[in-house]
Amino acid sequence: GAAMAVEGEWMDAEDSLTAAQGKSLPVVEDLRFTDAPPDMPEKATMGGLGRMVTKARTGNCWHGLFFDIENVGNKAVSVKAIKTGSSPEPPAPVREDRMTCMVFECDGSAAGKELDVSHWRQIGVGRQLQFPIVAYGEPDAFYGAVPLHSPIRIEAGATKGICLFTDSWRGVVLRAKLGSRFEAGETTDEDDHIRLGAGLLPVNDGGFEDGMFKEVYSDQCGDAFVGAIEYELE
């Protein structure tokens, strides 16, 4: 279906988180990603779109994820899209969840900031979104873009922390570190320009917004973002 952006706050006006953001974001509504060719890595050139595609999903799925995007190059990058997938619900036929998804950013690594809302800015919100289904170990997957109100600019050498938060426990697929565990901030994927860092899992217990930045699943257990990051060099 077509994506419709409607002006207005999704959460109640008195919600402290939205009030703290100080602005309303357009809400992406009813976006369903139909199948398309797999996302393939693309080398970034000036004026062209670069695409980092992570290693495949080898973990579970969860409501969301904290992770880092570090600019390891010598030019500023503008992140145009963060693309990920959901987990299928057994048994067949596969049902894709329609879910609400919110995206937040912070300056510097997300590590250590998971429980402090004052660091975070909301940069995207969508309702009734259906992300592509990505199976365990699936190579060459097709991913769908999370709602982003505007590109994320990262100066050379700088890091942005990202939080993806959905109201479905199948919302976001993950990659675990086999035989061990990722530390928050540990490198999971890297290309010539950006490095991704693992992060902890936010907890969503029932009330959805009520859980944001209040609790993590485990402060010992990090996971890797699975999907694609599309960016331009500035």
What does this structure look like?
- It is a single chain.
- By secondary structure, this protein is mainly β.
- The protein contains one helix and 16 strands.
- It has one helix at 16-21, and strands at residues 4-6, 27-29, 49-53, 61-62, 64-71, 77-84, 99-107, 121-129, 144-145, 152-154, 159-166, 172-175, 187-190, 194-197, 224-225, 228-233.
- The strands form three sheets. Strands 1-2-8-7-11-5-14-13 form an eight-stranded mixed β-sheet, with no helix packed on it. Strands 3, 6, 9, 10 and 16 form a five-stranded antiparallel β-sheet that branches. Strands 4-12-15 form a three-stranded antiparallel β-sheet, with no helix packed on it.
- A hairpin with a 3-residue loop joins β13 and β14.
- The longest helix has 6 residues, at 16-21.
Features:
234 residues, mainly beta, eight-stranded mixed sheet, five-stranded antiparallel sheet
In what range is the share of β-strand residues?
25-35%
- Overall body shape: globular
Strand order of the largest sheet: 1-2-8-7-11-5-14-13
Q: Largest sheet, if any?
A: 8 strands, mixed
Note the run of SSEs as H and E: EHEEEEEEEEEEEEEEE
The stretches of 5 or more residues where confidence is low (pLDDT under 50) are 1-23
The tally of helices reads 1
Mean pLDDT: 82
| Radius of gyration, whole Å | 16 Å
Q: Which structural class do you get from the secondary structure elements? A: mainly beta
Helices and strands in order, then pairings?
Elements: E1 4-6, H1 16-21, E2 27-29, E3 49-53, E4 61-62, E5 64-71, E6 77-84, E7 99-107, E8 121-129, E9 144-145, E10 152-154, E11 159-166, E12 172-175, E13 187-190, E14 194-197, E15 224-225, E16 228-233
Parallel strand pairs: 2-8
Antiparallel strand pairs: 1-2, 3-16, 4-12, 5-11, 5-14, 6-9, 6-10, 6-16, 7-8, 7-11, 12-15, 13-14
